[in-house]
Every structure is written in structure tokens, then in C-alpha cells.
User: Which sequence fits this backbone?
């Protein structure tokens, strides 16, 4: 079954060799980046509603999206936006002005 | 995707704006209730009692020793022991003059002793009711680590994620390199069968192309009957902690696929697939070429001869092709009952087709499970199928009877496709016509009465011209 390379019966043909050409994939054909999408959603929720858990989850999903990134140009915009939202949420929660609460005294 | 995201963002922002408008926390519209700022952690700590307000008292230059309070020390241990002095008399309290500016105001006495504070009888009664010694304020309670549980969990998860990223990436790389070392280095099966190995042009180019942290590709070219071969390793996402945890719940195997692009003149009419019975059904649903050309029922073995293992099912365009391709040698080595017991756990599917949808029509697809480094030698027989079948299919020629059947099937499919194309074109034309009609009707409706009259007159003139007899000029 294994074909041994010999002088008479060598399957190799250097003349027929073609170098590898990587197929061009359009951004539409790329698989959906669910982690990046979730990161944006959680980031927005964290910023608007001041939920620190949402902002932390946005950072975590950003890390996941970044680790699974294949096409840098296509996916970097979404990841950077999600990271900015997550970071902005954390900054506003921890360093921003404290929220006002009404008390009956 | 971007539109959906922008829509969600707009909705969320509008909700937040409404909530802000509805709240009465704007400047000048404060509610009567006192508002105070807080940190989230402060809520958990108990509130300290407010210290009792003590009135300012004037201390003399030589403070007098106050008599001991019997309430504080009911039973002194020794009569000679001096009791604690009253804090109100001994400690000088803040005076009203403490914050006065000497340069700014004139006529204010410089010494605090001369200041006379006139107190009303009400104030005196208040001083009697207030206890002389206020209780010591409790120290602020330290923030418990339990109040930071979200931060602790998330930061620790991120640290674990980063550590796992590097370890998982290393695992995938070592597995891919182990495969390459076994099958793509010097004196290996692919080195003996292909003149060009790796994705580059030169000799010192890397064998593997890393497309992602979990996808590795190996390319080989320069062989008879085929243009090239692309082996793709789809690993489990070990670098991603979330995917790894998900993988523990729903286990997933590493897969290696070999895609061989055959020369146009090398491959005859062959449509065939081999896999486990459940997977064959799934393949028939998914793959268009198998839907159109392959028979729905599995091919039975030739009478009185061995056939593939009972676990497997073969679907083909013609029985003859299946019987010729699964000869005794292949059954002995891989697909026979005894051989498949050893190799079966690594086998997924074979799919040969000269009608593959896409750029390259004539393609051989091999799909195997990629074992770990220790068991890499177990798939040697399966990998050997790749060059073996390139030669078998490259040389293979159908009989005249089988060829007639396959050509008839192909012409039938081509006619169906042509009809579908024509019907699609006609539908598109009809849509365009209907759109034009609608547009013209809308334009007519918009026109004024005078314009309509003019148009009618023009139409009448045309009709009159048509009805007029034609006059031939004779010389």
C-alpha cells in the first residue's frame, strides 16, 4: 500500500509542483464572533446601568475573542470597541462619582 | 451584524436617557429628602452612632481639677487613687476665636479669657441635659473581602485564562508538530510522494501554516494525478478556557482532513462516500453531490466476497465503482472487520467526488481523528490511504455501461440546473416589469389634468397616423 520512491516508479513530479496560495476570505464568510458580540453587549450594559459584573464579563469575553481572533483587520474593531466599553464601565464604577441614594432621616 | 449592534446601542441609550429625565436629581429640582453619596461597600458596614454635640466651653489658663463623678467610679479601689479628670474642663475645646483672622478684623480681643459668651436660660438647660463625656467613636469597620467577591472571581478567572492560553497553545502546537514529524519530515510518507512540502516556495520554509491557535495546515504538491494536497488540523480550542470547560461537558475530538485536488484528466466519474451509518445519512443531507448522484441506499458487497466492516456504510453512484475501489488490499489493511477494530476509532469518513461544489470539482476528501502524541503512529495506515487512493483513482476508468449511466445522470442534472437558471431569470424579468408598471402608474397618478389631456391627444394623433392609408411613391 505504501508507495516506495524508486527510480522507475517515483510518483513525484517536480514540474507539476504548485506553491500554496491561501484563499482570500471575505469578512462576510468569516465565522460569527459570538464572544466579541457578547463583550460589546455586556460592555454597554455595564456603562449605562453601572453593573460591575457586566463590565467584568465584557473584559472576559474580550479576552476570549482576542484569543480566538484569526482575521486581525476584520475583528479588531469590534474587540477594541468592546474592550473600551468594558474598561470605561470599570473606570466609571470604581473611580467615577458615587451614585445618589435617598434616605429618610 | 453591525446594524443589529447599532440598533441595540440606540435603544439602550434612549432607555437610559428616559430614566435620567424621569429622575428628580437635577440641580434645582432636589427632593425634600436628604440625599447622601455612598460607596457600595459602605452599605454593608453598620452605621456608627452620631457623636453627641458638646457645647464649647471656655477653659481657664490654669485648669481646675474636677471632682470625681460617683456614677463613673462607684467603688474606687483605693481612697488615695485620683479619679480621671473631667474631659470638659481639662481639654481646651475649640473656641469661636480659633478661626478669626487677626489682620482682617479689628476690635476683637486677642486673649480668649476676656471673651464673654452670653447664654440664654434655654441654652443652660440644654447643657444640663447633655452628658458631659461623649462616648468614644468606634473605629471604621474594615471592608470585608466578601464585598469584593465579583472582583476576586473575575480577576482570578482572567489570570487562569491567561495561563491556560499559553499552556493550551503549547499543547496544540506540540500535537501538530508531532504529526508533522511523523508524516511530513525526511523519509516519511509525504516526503516520498510529493516533491514540494510546506506552504512556501523554497526549501527552508515551515512545514505547517498556523491559521489560528487551533487550526494548522500542511500543504504538499508535485505529484502525478493531482494538483496538490492540503491537510488541515482542526484542534480542540485548548487555548480558550471557556471552550475547554465547554469541551469537558460536550467532548470534541481533534480532526485532520486531507483535501486532494485531482487533475481534470485524471479522475473519471466517481461519486462515493464511506463513513459510519449515522454519519453517512448526515453527509447525504449536507453534501449536494451525494444528494444528486449517489444512491440513497448503502452499497452491498459483491456476492460471496468480503466487504467493509459492519460499522461502516458505503454510498456510491454505481456499485461497480465501490467494488473496484474497496479491493482486498484495502479491506485487509483498513476497512475489513479485523483491521477496522484497530483503526476504527481514528477513522471518520472518505468522500470522493468529481462534482464537488466550489472552484475545484474533482476532489478527494479524507477525514480522520487526530490522536495525541503517544498514539500518533496508530493512524499510519489511514494516512497511507491518501497517496494510495490518488493513484487508484488517477488510473481508474469506468466500464462503458457504467459510464453511460453516469453520463446520463450528469446530463439530467445539468438540464435541471439550466431549467432552474431560466426560471430564475424569468422571475427576475417579471419582477422588473411589474416594478416598471408600478412606477409608470404612480407617475400617471401624479400628473395633472392638463398633462393627461396632452397625453391623450398625442395618443389619438398616433392612432390616426396608424389608421391613415400608406401612400407609395411611384416613379
Assistant:
Amino acid at each position: 500500500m505504501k508507495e516506495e520512491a524508486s527510480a522507475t516508479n517515483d510518483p513525484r513530479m517536480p514540474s507539476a509542483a504548485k506553491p500554496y496560495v491561501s484563499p482570500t476570505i471575505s469578512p462576510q464568510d468569516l465565522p460569527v464572533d459570538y464572544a466579541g458580540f457578547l463583550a460589546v453587549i455586556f460592555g454597554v450594559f455595564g456603562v449605562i446601568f453601572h453593573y460591575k459584573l457586566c463590565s467584568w464579563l465584557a473584559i472576559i469575553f474580550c479576552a476570549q475573542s482576542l484569543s480566538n481572533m484569526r482575521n486581525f483587520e476584520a475583528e479588531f474593531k469590534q474587540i477594541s470597541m468592546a474592550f473600551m466599553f468594558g474598561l470605561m464601565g470599570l473606570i466609571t464604577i470604581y473611580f467615577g462619582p458615587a451614585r445618589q441614594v435617598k434616605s429618610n432621616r | 451584524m453591525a446594524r443589529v449592534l447599532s440598533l441595540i446601542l440606540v435603544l439602550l441609550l434612549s432607555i437610559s436617557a428616559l430614566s435620567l429625565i424621569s429622575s428628580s436629581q437635577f440641580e434645582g429640582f432636589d427632593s425634600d429628602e436628604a440625599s447622601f453619596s455612598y460607596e457600595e461597600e459602605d452599605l454593608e458596614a453598620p452605621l456608627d452612632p452620631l457623636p453627641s454635640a458638646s457645647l464649647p466651653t471656655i477653659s481657664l489658663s490654669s485648669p481646675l481639677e474636677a471632682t470625681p463623678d460617683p456614677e463613673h467610679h462607684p467603688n474606687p479601689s483605693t481612697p488615695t487613687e485620683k479619679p480621671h479628670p473631667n474631659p470638659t474642663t481639662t481639654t481646651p475645646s475649640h473656641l469661636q476665636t480659633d478661626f478669626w483672622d487677626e489682620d482682617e478684623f479689628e476690635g476683637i480681643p486677642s486673649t480668649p479669657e476676656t471673651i464673654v459668651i452670653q447664654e440664654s436660660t434655654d441654652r443652660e438647660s440644654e447643657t444640663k441635659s447633655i452628658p458631659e463625656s461623649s462616648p468614644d467613636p468606634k473605629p471604621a469597620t474594615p471592608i470585608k473581602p466578601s464585598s469584593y467577591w465579583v472582583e476576586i472571581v473575575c480577576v482570578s478567572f482572567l489570570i487562569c485564562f491567561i495561563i491556560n492560553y499559553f499552556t493550551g497553545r503549547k499543547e496544540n502546537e506540540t500535537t501538530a508538530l508531532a504529526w508533522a514529524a511523523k508524516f511530513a519530515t525526511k523519509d516519511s510518507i509525504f516526503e516520498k510522494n510529493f516533491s514540494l512540502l510546506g506552504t512556501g516556495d523554497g526549501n527552508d520554509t515551515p512545514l505547517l501554516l498556523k491559521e489560528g491557535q487551533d487550526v494548522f495546515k500542511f500543504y504538499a504538491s508535485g505529484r502525478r494525478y493531482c494538483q496538490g494536497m492540503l491537510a488541515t488540523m482542526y484542534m480542540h480550542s485548548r487555548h480558550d478556557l471557556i471552550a475547554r470547560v465547554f469541551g469537558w461537558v460536550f467532548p470534541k475530538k481533534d480532526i485532520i482532513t486531507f483535501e486532494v485536488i485531482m487533475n481534470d484528466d485524471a479522475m473519471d466519474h466517481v461519486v462515493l462516500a464511506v463513513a459510519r451509518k449515522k454519519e453517512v445519512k448526515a453527509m447525504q443531507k449536507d453534501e449536494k453531490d451525494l444528494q444528486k448522484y449517489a444512491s440513497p441506499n448503502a452499497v452491498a458487497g459483491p456476492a460471496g466476497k468480503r466487504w467493509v466492516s459492519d460499522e461502516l456504510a458505503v454510498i456510491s453512484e454505481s456499485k461497480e465503482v465501490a467494488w473496484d475501489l474497496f479491493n482486498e488490499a484495502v479491506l485487509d489493511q483498513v476497512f475489513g472487520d479485523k483491521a477496522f477494530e484497530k483503526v476504527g476509532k481514528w477513522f471518520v469518513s472518505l468522500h470522493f467526488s468529481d462534482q464537488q461544489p466550489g472552484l475545484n470539482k474533482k476532489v478527494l476528501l479524507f477525514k480522520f481523528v487526530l490522536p495525541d502524541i503517544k498514539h500518533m503512529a496508530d493512524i499510519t495506515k489511514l494516512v497511507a490511504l491518501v497517496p494510495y487512493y490518488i493513484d487508484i483513482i488517477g488510473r481508474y476508468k469506468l466500464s462503458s455501461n457504467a459510464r453511460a449511466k453516469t453520463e446520463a445522470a450528469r446530463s439530467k442534472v445539468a438540464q435541471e440546473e439550466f431549467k432552474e437558471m431560466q426560471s430564475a431569470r424569468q422571475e427576475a424579468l417579471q419582477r422588473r416589469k411589474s416594478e416598471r408598471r408600478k412606477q409608470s402608474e404612480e407617475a400617471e397618478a401624479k400628473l395633472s389634468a392638463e398633462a393627461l389631456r396632452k397625453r391623450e391627444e398625442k395618443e389619438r394623433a398616433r392612432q390616426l397616423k396608424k389608421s391613415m392609408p400608406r401612400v407609395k411613391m411611384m416613379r
